[in-house]
Amino acid sequence: MIRASRNLLHYALVCALGFGAPLAVAASNNNAAPPTGAPIKAVLTAPPLVPPATNRNAPANVVVDLEVIEKEMRLADGVTYNFWTFGGTVPGSFIRVRQGDTVEFNLKNAHDSHMPHNIDLHAVSGQGGGAEATFTLPGHKTKFTFKALNPGLYVYHCAMPPVGMHIANGMYGLILVEPPEGLPKVDKEYYVMQGDFYTEGKHGDAGLQPFSLEKAIDEHPTYVVFNGSEGALTGDHALTAKAGETIRMYVGNGGPNLVSSFHVIGEIFDKVYTEGGSKYQENVQTTLIPAGGSAIVEFKADVPGNFVLVDHSIFRTFHKGTLGILKVEGEKNPTIYTGQQSNEEYAPAAGKGGH
């Protein structure tokens, strides 16, 4: 009862304070321009894919149709979980709009859902980020409209109480608000999002695993994974590129509890738009991504190889699941990286040999 009261109190604070909405920034003249042309239906993609750039020089009326689907899916080999999803995937569908767009947002909740849901988009300047406007019962649909005032990469999530449980069950995703001039062109774009999961059973216990509220409150996740499951970005699902290509990753952290120390082993990020904002830092090894936050990382794949995506809180990687692969193919370049050149026993220094 105490925990339920705390959840309700938290939800009230979320709604009252508009938590999650981006900090107010003066709107540019471009923001104020009225949308033009016929409404455009937003292209939504499942991870790790990203919708194409908007390639528009003026704001538009954009329609987003997103459905909440509760479904059992794979969490790890032999392990399943009843995920609550935006669009049928974890993370939810990637949404891409342009600064100044007027977005008509339609949220459906599938008829076979067991819970009411809503959505708080951090890209929205308005109470609850749209959460109150989208309270949606199973079998119902809701609609609200917002203007995309601020460019950036934003998290969205369900904000129904208990908020943490809805997020822990997979209800999060990313929305990109492009600046009017767009982002610089790159060769590949990918969508990666970390999340922590709390099951009654231990890591690796087979079968359908129920959610553990106790573990979630204690912040002791059973799994910490990229894109909703162990192995979502390995093997046949590995990300791919060619040597010489420039790669942009839109990286989010749904949480609900843990901060991510995102790192790609064997690469240096040429640019990191920290916390999904407009400014970037250069030559970064590891970037912190808060729960409910994001970052845009860019780098050139200089040489071929398998480059490992990790949360550098490293026990999570090798014992809880935050491991992905970027497979880069192409010609070797020994001027940048040789690989192993020798492996031999060395002679001990005189007078210090042997034990």
TrEMBL record:
Q: Does the keyword Metal-binding apply?
A: yes
**SUPFAM superfamilies, alphabetized:** Cupredoxins (SSF49503)
Gene Ontology MF term list: nitrite reductase (NO-forming) activity
Plastocyanin-like domain location: 70-181, 227-309
Q: Which cofactor does it need?
A: Cu(+); Cu(2+)
Give the record's keywords alphabetically.
Copper, Metal-binding, Oxidoreductase, Repeat, Signal
Enzyme Commission number: 1.7.2.1
Subunit text? Homotrimer.
Q: What is this protein called?
A: Copper-containing nitrite reductase
Record the organism. Answer: Lysobacter stagni
